[in-house]
Amino acid sequence: MQGLRPILIGFALAVVLTVLPFGLVATRLLPRDMTLWLVGVAAVTQIMVHLRFFLGIRLGSGDRERNGALIFAFVLLFIMVGGTLWVMGNLNYRMM
Amino acid sequence: MTTAVRHSDSEVSFGFWLYLMSDAILFGLIFATFVVMSTNLAGGPGGTDLFSMTNLSMQTALLLTSSLTVALAHHAAMEERIGPALVWLALTFALGAGFLVLEVRELSGFVASGAGPNRSGYLSAFFTLLSTHGLHVSAGLIWIGTMMMQLLLKGPNSRVLSRLSRLTLFWHFLDIVWIGIFSVVYLPELF
């Protein structure tokens, strides 16, 4: 999080990754399914850009405790959010 | 002495990081609830009827730019350039406040048109998610004001700088949550 360069690179990438999904939705250039997939991919990429350039996360090198907590949070999120959507979606399907 | 200070400083910073991770899990679960509830309209209005692309674009632009200004404020303060740091912080405050005004206007408009949180499961989940994020932004605004006063009165000493770096983390975190909100809540309904 020192230097000016990572801040500016991160901001430029974030702008591109924001304008892209907004532009795709506003212009309706592609079919709905493909647009929503691209919105999702842009969001995940932008979150990684923020983590790397604004929060200064580097996997491999960098603060191990901090990275460990981050990975643990991701695992918990994956289990809890993924599990909720799976169980509730399945329930919804069976109730139909 | 310095090593002791640095040590306790990195402990505080790690503690704050753990708070952010727990907050990320809180938001993740509210997102999961929202997705589960997203089809429960109960005959009420959905996002397609309510959301405005202009409002969303303006909110996103304000918050994304404020992510840049808060990083520049932190950068300037680390180089002990107080004047620029205060200007960047003031700009961040203004952008964040502008975001909040747009959000409050949008949500109160929904309530006024009969699409409040009590209308349907979808709207309950929507209001929970949006106002939790809005409350975090409000807390961030108070924090920015506090940091401006501390920079002004105490100067860029190590404790003030370490608080400022945690504020920067917090503010970037809010922008990350907003990426999730516009991608999951708004854009699919605006297509």
From TrEMBL, chain A:
Heterooctamer of two A chains, two B chains, two C chains and two D chains. It is a multi-pass membrane protein. It comes from Ruegeria sediminis. It is found in: Cell membrane. Belongs to the cytochrome c oxidase bacterial subunit 4 family. Cytochrome bo(3) ubiquinol terminal oxidase is the component of the aerobic respiratory chain of E.coli that predominates when cells are grown at high aeration. Has proton pump activity across the membrane in addition to electron transfer, pumping 2 protons/electron. This is Cytochrome bo(3) ubiquinol oxidase subunit 4. The lineage of its organism: Bacteria, Pseudomonadati, Pseudomonadota, Alphaproteobacteria, Rhodobacterales. The gene is cyoD. InterPro entries: Cyt_c_oxidase_su4_prok, Cyt_o_ubiqinol_oxidase_su4, Cytochrome_c_oxidase_bac_sub4. The chain crosses the membrane at residues 7-30, 36-55, 67-88. Keywords: Cell membrane, Electron transport, Membrane, Oxidoreductase, Transmembrane, Transmembrane helix, Transport. Pfam families: COX4_pro.
TrEMBL record, chain B:
It holds the Pfam family COX3. It comes from the Bacteria. Belongs to the cytochrome c oxidase subunit 3 family. The keyword Transport does not apply. The chain crosses the membrane at residues 12-36, 56-73, 85-102, 122-146, 167-187. It is a multi-pass membrane protein. This is Cytochrome o ubiquinol oxidase subunit III. Keywords: Cell membrane, Membrane, Transmembrane, Transmembrane helix. PANTHER family: CYTOCHROME BO(3) UBIQUINOL OXIDASE SUBUNIT 3, CYTOCHROME C OXIDASE SUBUNIT III. Coiled coil: none annotated.
